[in-house]
Structure formats: structure tokens, C-alpha cells
Amino acid sequence: MKIRIFITGGTFDKEYNELTGTLFFKDSHLSEMLKLGRCRLRLEIRTLMMIDSLEMTDADRMIIVENCKSAPEDRIVVTHGTDTMVETAGFLARHVTGKTIVLTGAMIPYKFGSSDGMFNLGSSLAFVQTLPSGIYISMNGKCFPWDSVKKDKRIGEFIETG
Amino acid sequence: MKIRIFITGGTFDKEYNELTGTLFFKDSHLSEMLKLGRCRLRLEIRTLMMIDSLEMTDADRMIIVENCKSAPEDRIVVTHGTDTMVETAGFLARHVTGKTIVLTGAMIPYKFGSSDGMFNLGSSLAFVQTLPSGIYISMNGKCFPWDSVKKDKRIGEFIETG
Amino acid sequence: MKIRIFITGGTFDKEYNELTGTLFFKDSHLSEMLKLGRCRLRLEIRTLMMIDSLEMTDADRMIIVENCKSAPEDRIVVTHGTDTMVETAGFLARHVTGKTIVLTGAMIPYKFGSSDGMFNLGSSLAFVQTLPSGIYISMNGKCFPWDSVKKDKRIGEFIETG
Amino acid sequence: MKIRIFITGGTFDKEYNELTGTLFFKDSHLSEMLKLGRCRLRLEIRTLMMIDSLEMTDADRMIIVENCKSAPEDRIVVTHGTDTMVETAGFLARHVTGKTIVLTGAMIPYKFGSSDGMFNLGSSLAFVQTLPSGIYISMNGKCFPWDSVKKDKRIGEFIETG
């Protein structure tokens, strides 16, 4: 079984620009993270965009949709900023069927010593191997179907909805 | 759903004694790792022993068996040294039925900046939620049934056996 | 010999707010850094302010001056943002005499895995013990008298001026 | 001013062998540490040996002596295991004159997330630039003349004697 990973940016991949003192995106750290995690799954990794999810438009989301559809793999992990992750999951649910797609992200950038990125990456790659087709969000060790989850911005966690 | 975690030691929890320059076990870092991973699963954590798996005897394994049997939870993660993880998995398979038990570990101690521990912890907690009852080993992003895996000691990875 | 450390903020102490995705100041990490460095010098540490040095006014600088003057110690380290460190050094030179004052900072926040903070802290505490009275900047392993240094903002380093 | 650094091993450069679960020496991390510290001093770095200081013989010490003597630089930092650092300092004092030589080390390996190595490296490079000729030990933020220091092995710190 081969798994596809699509990278879209988000906190996962934010870096600190020491000359300006601001946060920015450069390259994805996903390959480095998978190496540190000693992951030996068969993976195809592709960066679709490298943006803050607050800036993600429906045109961007359609790019993710098209790539999920045309990928030969049926099991796909999408790394994504947490702020609009639920919105993108709903968008994917309306356009893609017959595939297991797991969205995940991080609250702390990998480069800032985050371990929630490593933890979430491990979880999402496990969920994507075992769950039936559908669109899911994997955060905080849990896996939520796309239509029963929201981000609680006050505490920075994902919780089940009614 | 509540998940049980049993801690038995292994590389996961090794520390460096700066006075003697040797490796040793003190306390488990599992709670700290779960906090860093921002894990919000309902967990019951219990330390059964804190040993190098090369020193684990069948009496030790019977302690793990008894605890897995008597735990009210049906989904159990066991942290374990990698050297005899497969042996313990087989021992559990002969004595415990009707529960999903996932053994996991690390190649690099958490305290030495390991990220494979965080990654494996994320994976094993996801697998334990989704797999049917049985005994499994979760390493390198994969999940192996207990009777079709071995550790390749030359490369430090777990591989599928015929 | 007792050494005084005055904390004024700067990149050294920036943190990442995971709820908003922005950088901010909370508490100083200096005590934690000194503990990690296994520093056993006799130190008196006091936080004077916790600001970005771009926002430092002459009124703020006068607070630093007054504290340097009234401190019983003759050897003082000031942690400071790098952007206006040279300006503050000149301000101190015009108002304080008879003391050895070393300004230092970091290009990467301590919380983001920075090691230049630890390195600069080690350097500045060594320089303050050995140099004659005067105002100095300790960065990049070097120690510059206040009137012969500038920050090269293009490369983020301090260099000697004619 | 150019500074010479001689590497002899010690805890500084210990690594963890994940296949055997033991500690060993491979390459020095000094260049990486200097880069992280954003050090811009003019340095000449040379590895003389890569050993635990408990195994250092007088023949090894004579190699350090000869290299200190023949080096064109008058200011030299020697990285060294802490267990026999004081002994080597005394050996150097009997054989080398007219140079400023600072021995330093670490209690925790750099690869295990140690920050005392970064701190000590910063201190020792500052002390070597400012102290008169002589043999010194730089640990715990302090600088001790070679003949008035010992390692307190119970607490892992260097303290003044006499």
C-alpha cells in the first residue's frame, strides 16, 4: 500500500526569520520529520502550496481536490493550517469520494521544537491506513469525521460536535 | 472510549546520568510526551516495570499479561524495549484474547531529542483505536500482526516476515 | 565577585503564542538558561522591562542607566534586543562610568531551540568577569567596545567599525 | 587575533548508537556548535583524539602538549572530558609556557540536547581572548587557574581549592 501526502503549509512548516524577527514559510520539513520518526511506509510526498490556512481560498481548495482525485493512491494525508482545516475538510467531502483522506496539522512549528507535529504525523499516517473511505481530521490523538468536529480557538484544540 | 497504556521501560525512557556518564532508567516520560503531543484522548497510564527489554523474563511478561487481562479497557498500548518486543507480543498472543493490544517503542531515548518516540506514540494510539482485537507491533509508521514481524537488528527496523 | 544581570527583553525571550500564531513576550528564560548551562556564578538577576528593542525609548534607556548606577555590583550583563543594542550601549557610555557593562542578545529565541542565546550568555558572563570598566557589546563570540561596533542588518551579525 | 581549538573528545562529543543502545564517539560536533552559536571568531580547529578522558594516558597528554607548543596561535581552547581535565591542565602547565590555554568540556553530550556545552564553549572562547598566559579550566561560567580547582564528582561541578 502506498500513501500520498499533500503539503499545504500551516503552522507545521512555519520558520523564524532571524533578520526580520517574523514568521514565514520556506520549505516543508515533512521529509525531515519522517526521517526522524524512522518512518518506513511507502510514501509519495508533494507540496501543493505553502500558505497560512487563514489565507486559503476556494481556488486553493479546488487545487487540493483535483490533486486528491487524480492521485493514484486511495489513502491521502493532507498537512494543513488548523484555522480553516475543518472548512477544507468539508470542501473535500463535497468533491471527493471513495478515498480515505486525513487532514492534520500542528499548533507549534516543527522548527520551534514542536512535538505535536511529530505526534500528529504519526497518528494521521496510522489512521489513513486503517479507516474506511471518508474525510477525517486527525488532531490531539483523535480522528474526527469531517462533519462532527470544530476547532475551539480559545484552547487550541479540536472537539467533537453534536 | 478509554485507552490503557502500560509502561515497561525500553529505550523510550532511558536517561543519561551526567555524574557517571552512563544510561539508566528513572521515571517514565510518557505523560510529558502526551502533553507535548497535545493528546486529549481519555487515557489510564500505569508503569508496570522500568527495564531494558533484554532483561525481561517470562515472569515479567506474565505481569504484563495479567495486567492486560484485568484492565477494564479493551484497547491497550504497551511501551516496550525493541529488542524483545516481538517475543513479548507472542507471549501476549498466547495468553490474552478479545483485546486490541499494540506494542511500541523507540530507537532513541526521548531525552536525547528523539522524535521517533513521539511519532511512534502517535501511531500506536491511532492504531489501537481502529484495529480489531489482536496483538500488534507499531513501529516505523507501520502496524504488524504479532506473528508476521521481526526486528532487523542490523538496521534497527521492524520488517514483515513471510 | 557578584555579577548583576539586567533583563530588558529582545529576541532572547520571545515566545510563540500557539492560539494566535504570533510572537510575544511572557517571562524571561534566563534563569532556565543559566541552569541548563550549569552556571555557578554568584548572580543577581532583575527584569527591568520585557520589550522589543525597536520600541525602546530614551526613557527606557534611562531606567537601565539608573539601575546600572544604583546596583551594588560593578560587573553587569544587560540582555537586550539586537536592533538597538548599539544605541543603548552609547547611551550607557554617556551616563555610567567605573563599571564593566556587557550587552548581549540573541538572533533566535531560546524557545525556538536557539543555541546562540546559550553561547552568547556564556561569552558575556566571561567577558564581564575579565574586562576593565567600560561599555561593551558581546555577540558572535566577540567583544566590541561600544564605540567601534555596528549591527550589519543584512547578515544579522555585529562587525567592527573603523 | 586567531584562536586555536584542539578537540580531544569527552562528553561533549558522545553519541548514542541506536543499534546497540550504547554511547560512543564518531565525529566532533564543534563546528556545528560554533555555527549554531553564530560565532565569527577567526578559528583553527583540529581534532587530536576522540576519547573518554578516563582513558587518556600521559602519551596522549604529550600529544596535546606538542600541538599546543607548535601551534602558531598563542590562544588555545582544548575540549576535554571532565573526569581528568584537571590532571591534563597540570600536565600542560609543566610543559607549556607563554600561551593562554583554556580547557573546557560538558556534563551532557551536545547530541542529547545539552546546553551546557554551548554555554561552556561561549565562556571558554571569551576567557581565552582576555586572560594573560597560563593554563585555565573554564566550567560552570567560571575560570579557574589550573592549580586551584578540582572536580567535585558527587555534584558534577568544578570548585575552587586552596
How would you describe this protein?
Four copies of one chain form a homotetramer. Chain A has 162 residues and is α/β, with parallel strands linked by helices. In chain A, 28% of the residues lie in helices and 33% in strands. Chain A has four helices and ten strands. A six-stranded mixed β-sheet of chain A has the order 4-1-5-6-7-8, sandwiched between helices. In chain A, helix 2 packs across helix 3. The longest helix of chain A has 15 residues. The mean pLDDT of chain A is 94. At the C-D interface, helix 1 and helix 4 of C face helix 1 and helix 4 of D.
Q: In summary, what is this structure?
A:
Four copies of one chain form a homotetramer. With 162 residues, the first copy, chain A, is α/β, with parallel strands linked by helices.
Q: Secondary-structure element order of chain A, as H and E?
A: EEEHEHEHEHEEEE
Number of helical regions of chain A: 4
Portion in helices of chain A: 25-40%
Could you state the oligomeric state of the chains shown?
homotetramer
Radius of gyration of chain A: 15 Å
Strand order of the largest sheet of chain A: 4-1-5-6-7-8
Cα(first) to Cα(last) distance of chain A is 34 Å
Biggest sheet of chain A, open or closed, and with what strands and sense?
Answer: 6 strands, mixed
Shape of chain A: globular
> What percentage of the residues of chain A does DSSP assign to strands (E)?
25-35%
| Low-confidence blocks of residues of chain A | none
Task: Please give the most extensive interface between any two protein chains, plus how many residues each contributes.
Answer: A-B, 33 and 33 residues
Secondary-structure-derived class of chain A? alpha/beta
Look at the structure and give the mean pLDDT of chain A.
94
**Number of strand segments of chain A:** 10
